[in-house]
Each structure stands twice: as C-alpha cells, then as structure tokens.
Design a protein that fits this description.
Length: 589
C-alpha cells in the first residue's frame, strides 16, 4: 500500500496537539508570576489614559466559591480588554477583614469569654491566614493584579484613614447619636445593618387586642360617630404578631383619611376600619351592627386604657397605617418599630425599651398578673402576654400564622427591633438649615451615574427614597473603633473631637486599632479625662468597605489608582450593600 504521508506538505506546529489544560494551565500561571507579567504591563502602560475598576472586597472568611470566581473573572476580562484598548488599567484586589463573622469564628474556637485585646489579635491572625488562602486561589484562576500589594481593610493605614473618613462625616453634620429602634440580633448581641438582614418565614402568634376607650373620652368618641352617647364599653382593636412588644405600647395609630366603623357586638362596641370590619368580625366569630362611621382624624387624641398596665395611651394619626391586614388600627411602640418611632417623634411619645441586649426583659419591667416578665426572653414573653390578655378579657382572637420575618443573615435566627443608643448616618439629618440632606445628595449622585444593566438605576433610586438612617455603631471587639470621648454627665462629644480624631488616627496608623483600645484617655485629655468616657463601640463593617474610595483610592493606593473610580462591578445583591455604603459615605464626605 502506498505511503502518502511523505507526499503531504503539512505545517509543523511547535505546540502539542492535545490541550492538556489540567497540566498546562498551572504552568502558564506560574510563568506569569515568575516573569512578573502584571508589572510588565504596568510599565508598558505608563502614560496612557487611566481606567480604574475599584475592587469590591470579598470577606476574608472561608475558601472561595463559584460566586468569587465569577466576580474575579468578569473583572479580569474587563481590565484586560481595557488594557488592549489602549488604557492603563491597574487592578488592585482587596479584602474586607473586620466584622462579626471573623469574630464569631474566634468565639467558636476559643470561647466567648476572652479579653478584647486577645480577640483582636486572634482575629487579625485569622483574617491574614484567610487572605492568603483566597489570594492563592484567585491567582490560580489566572487573574492578573497587584497580588503582592493588595489593599486590606485591617492594614494600619487603611484603619486610620477610615477613622478620618468618619471624622469628615461628623464635621459635615450627617453623623448623630440617637436612641431609636434598630435591627438587633440576639445571637450577635449587636445592631445589624440593613444588608445584614434577610427575610425568612416565621410562625408567630397573631392576636387581636381590645383597648378600652377611657370613660372620660366616651363622649368624644360618640360625637365623632354622630351619636349622643355610647351604650356599652367601647374598644379600639389592634392586631399584632409581636405580643411581647405590648408592654412598651405608647399609642394606637389610625389613618386620618380612612373610614372607621363603630360596630355594636356582644363583646362591646368595636372600632374597626371599614374595609376590614367584616373580616374581623368573622375572625372573632361575632355578629355585629354598624352604628356609626367616622374618619380617623376625628378620633385623634382619644384616650385608651392600656390592656394590662395601669396607664392611658392615646389614638394618634399616621399615614403608615394600611389596609393589607389586621384591623386598620396599629399598636404603636416607638422602642420596637421604625414606623412607630417616626410617628412617635411627631407626637412626642417616649421611647421606652424594657428589653436588654440579651433579648430579656429588664428587672424594672412591671410584672403581669399571671407572671413576672423580668428575666424572660421576648419569645418566652409571647405566651405570657397572650395569657394576660385573656385573663383581662382583652383578647379577641389568637391564631398562629406563618409570615415573612427579618432574620440575621449569619445566625439564620429571628431578630427583634429594639431601641438603643447608637450612632447613625442620617439620611435627612443636618446641622444647618441651609445644608442639603444626604438623601437629596445621594439621589443626585444616582442620577449622574451610568448603570449596566440600566434597571440597576431604578433599584438604587427606590432604595434611596425609602432607606432609613444608617446605624453605623456595633458592640464588638474586632472592628475599627468610633474614637469618641463622651462627657460622663451630658453625653456630649468633647469640644476638640475633630482634633482628637486626627490624634487617634496617627496612633492607629502606627499600631492599628489596638492603639485606641489600649489608649489611656489621659494621654490625650490630661486632667479632663476624669469627666469623659472613652467609647468602645466599633464601626459597621459595611462602613469599612464603603469608605475605601477614601482609604484606598485616595489613601493607601493612590499612586496606583485614581479617584473617582471608573467602574464598580459587583453582583446585584450589592445594591443594598457595597453600592449603598460607598454611595452614602462618598456623598457625605
């Protein structure tokens, strides 16, 4: 048979016919590292127009997963394409290093009852180890970047510049201390950011509670409903899925423009919103006759008796009342709800929080007739409050329902709303009348930003319109401190606070956050220190990454990067996370 092989004129290739990528890829990556390919590209790109993609820092906890891979590979594609298009496109990767997840790992390994300085040392070492593990995996993905000089939020210079950023926000008038309800995780024993809350189904007791109209105000109620008098005891009926908050009730809210019916029933005369009255009566298994109707505004300031405490509460008007469920009348406890707090401010209601950091009622909490509440957890209190209402004849209905409820994203456990004294970045707070609110500035900034895909704009716009003030203080050990000195009697900030912040930042720049926690106040305040207390709160970890536009782009890596960045590229979940924290701190500063 003829041998045609030698008669064919084929090209001779220097590369093997088989891809064999499993063996060859690691060799390519090793060669890029050995030959310093990234550094060579930087040298060649000098003088070109700069394009900066600012890296949203992954959290230094655990091995990388497919989400990390997608994130880093997309960024690498963009940086390489911009380089090929003629730009100087550096890539400085970063890591988020403080916060509860790392502290939680240390607690699991070493226990909770160890000194704060030891916690910080162990956390710093753990985070450094996690960074190295993740870095090696990112390099293995073939991502080119400044791996020998990444940014770390726990780097001393970055920690110091974060403190300086806080000082600038304070000077601009957007930072304030306030007693208001925040998302509170009982397992973390700390406030949570909005981005640290997720909603899951929860089974709760849903109760309808009758608040009796005070005898001195029955005439006012009769007049509002066009009657000469009321023949039977009259009750304003509320519906709630958190019975444990009733000891903190300060009012009952109604909508001023809704129509409310006065319904005569065998259990008394009930005030219910018109649209839900039939459903309520069916739920209570009652027959009723409507004997009058009135707008909610006509019932404003009517006094009611608290269902089991010896005090009176008032009917107030609020636009937060809806017709989605319940009775159209809302139990209002300013210490345990955002809407409750806001309407409470309008009416000057007290913010009384009987629940401690551990989710248990404080010793001074008035007892129920069926049981003391002091020392009981909020979940233990639920059946006790229900039992008390039944004993007092004020429970119209109790049923278990499954509904969406906020949970801690780390512990996957239900959280509560409780009022604590915290530090907030205020969306509508300002020190001067002529100053713009942070919400207004942020909305303008969203207008001036390009979004890919375009629907991201509408999502962030909606969040800016409705988001509450940002609680930035945490009660933890592993975090950048809020380096304030507060007067022991008045709670006021030291008058030299801006100057003191820079003094602390200089110390942190040399020794890290440990410099603040080990600081003797006398070193900065002298004899004045007897009148001031040093704060131990730390900043929300979202603040750490949120101010990297200042601490990295204009701080530790300003030689490699420019401000502002051309691109922030992250998953859609960061509309409520890093995009927001970066936007708000950038606008505030």
């Amino acid at each position: 048979m003829p041998d045609y092989k030698n008669t064919l004129n084929l090209t001779d290739t220097p590369f093997p016919m088989r891809g064999d990528l499993a063996k060859r890829e690691p060799q390519w990556v090793a060669a890029w590292q050995k030959n310093k390919l990234y550094e060579q590209i930087r040298e060649v790109s000098k003088g070109r127009p700069r394009f900066v993609l600012h890296d949203g820092p992954p959290y230094a906890n655990g091995d990388i997963h497919i989400g990390h891979a997608v994130n880093k590979i997309l960024k690498d594609i963009i940086v390489r394409s911009k380089t090929l298009a003629g730009f100087d496109a550096p890539y400085v990767p970063g890591w988020d290093c403080h916060g509860l997840p790392i502290e939680h790992q240390i607690e699991k390994k070493h226990g909770k009852h160890i000194a704060g300085d030891q916690v910080r040392a162990l956390c710093r070492a753990f985070a450094a180890e996690q960074v190295e593990r993740q870095k090696n995996d990112f390099i293995r993905l073939g991502v080119l970047g400044e791996w020998d000089n990444p940014y770390l939020t726990m780097a001393f210079k970055t920690e110091a510049d974060e403190i300086r950023s806080l000082g600038k926000i304070l000077e601009k008038g957007y930072l304030y201390q306030g007693l208001k309800p925040v998302n509170w995780c009982l397992d973390c024993a700390s406030a949570l950011a909005e981005a640290e809350v997720e909603h899951e189904d929860k089974n709760s007791p849903a109760i309808d509670v009758a608040f009796e109209v005070h005898p001195n105000h029955t005439g006012k109620v009769a007049k509002a409903f066009g009657l000469s008098h009321l023949r039977a005891p009259t009750f304003a009926v509320i519906w709630t899925t958190t019975p444990w908050t009733l000891p903190a009730n300060e009012a009952v809210s109604i909508h001023p423009e809704f129509d409310y019916d006065l319904v005569d029933t065998p259990k008394g005369t009930l005030i219910l919103v018109h649209e839900l009255a039939d459903a309520c009566l069916k739920r209570y298994n009652l027959e009723g006759t409507v004997i009058g109707s009135a707008k909610g505004a006509a019932l404003e300031h009517v006094l009611l008796k608290h269902p089991f405490q010896e005090r009176d509460v008032a009917i107030i008007c609020g636009s937060h009342v809806t017709l989605e469920a319940g009775t159209g009348l809302v139990h209002t406890a300013p210490a345990h709800g955002a809407d409750d707090y806001q309407i409470g401010k309008v009416y000057g209601l007290p913010v009384v929080n009987p629940v401690g950091d551990d989710g248990k009622f404080l010793a001074a909490t008035p007892p129920l007739s069926v049981s003391p509440l002091a020392g009981k957890s909020v979940w233990e209190a639920n059946p006790l409050v229900v039992q008390e209402l039944e004993t007092q004849g004020r429970l119209l209905k109790m049923e278990r329902i499954t509904h969406s409820y906020p949970h801690c994203w780390r512990h996957k456990t239900p959280i509560i709303f409780r009022a604590t004294t915290q530090w907030f970045v205020g969306m509508d707070h300002k020190d001067r009348e002529d100053a713009a609110t942070l919400r207004w500035i942020a909305e303008r900034a969203v207008d001036e930003t390009q979004f890919f895909p375009a629907w991201g704009r509408a999502r962030l716009e909606a969040m800016m319109k409705t988001r509450p003030d940002w609680c930035v203080s945490r009660q933890r050990n592993w975090g950048v401190p809020i380096p304030f000195f507060l007067h022991k009697e008045t709670g006021a900030l030291h008058p030299r606070t801006p100057e003191l912040i820079e003094e602390v930042a200089l110390r942190v720049e040399q020794a890290g956050i440990e410099a603040w926690f080990s600081l003797d106040p006398k070193a900065l305040l002298g004899e004045e220190s007897a009148h001031y207390r040093k704060m131990n709160d730390t900043l929300d970890v979202w603040f750490d990454s949120g101010v990297t536009h200042a601490s990295v782009l204009r701080g530790s890596h300003q030689a490699q990067l420019d401000y502002p960045a051309d691109l922030y590229l992250e998953g859609s979940d960061q509309h409520r996370g890093w995009f927001q924290s970066s936007l708000l701190t950038g606008c505030a500063i």
